[in-house]
Amino acid sequence: xxxxxxxxxxxxxxxxxxxxxxxxxxxxxxxxxxxxxxxxxxxxxxxxxxxxxxxxxxxxxxxxxxxxxxxxxxxxxxxxxxxxxxxxxxxxxxxxxxxxxxxxxxxxxxxxxxxxxxxxxxxxxxxxxxxxxxxxxxxxxxxxxxxxxxxxxxxxxxxxxxxxxxxxxxxxxxxxxxxxxxxxxxxxxxxxxxxxxxxxxxxxxxxxxxxxxxxxxxxxxxxxxxxxxxxxxxxxxxxxxxxxxxxxxxxxxxxxxxxxxxxxxxxxxxxxxxxxxxxxxxxxxxxxxxx
Length: 291
What we know:
three-stranded mixed beta sheet; 10 helices; 7 strands; about 10% strand
């Protein structure tokens, strides 16, 4: 459920901010993320960047026919804006004066955190159990264009979590099945499990955003072209888009061949792959055979 190195070039945290004139310089040293005000500035700058990009995307999508495509592209940015009214989205503010763990925020809201110790090879991740997006300490999604795409990937995971919790909030057994899966109960849990349907949706979003940014020359493009690692990542996205050109089209459909390809990539990265069925009564998770 995190932003993996499946479609990405290795990230270098030492690269320079790409658009400091518009969004200003902010320390991303570990001490910055141990202070409420430092974290608040970090979050607000990401939210401001999202608002700008959302406006640009909405304008360029006016000529598209697919309402599903428009929703898929714009809805994560709308969720970021909706969450901006929640003071405790800043996990340090939520923890202030508390000795116990912070309770998860109810949908649609969620926490942001930049933990001092991050796990495995993730750039960013979303943890449904705590409803928290964790950012790597080298990330600055309010300034660096690719970091913003990685963060939006995680916001899409929040949307997926919101959908489950909203749909099943009046069904205790279904919600218990969901929580059991998240906590590794009743599944083969080595700490590296992933839901195929969810990852397909988030990576499809990244590919479509990358295409739209360059096709319509959105402001993020300038920042990407000024960053060598972002250029390499863009070229990698383009190779995938060449293989699956449907992501360049006016449709929200996802090619079955892409699902198969991504599943293979996840397997090769050592993830146990699950999917689920919704039979109207409960959520049933099943492990898929690795490819």
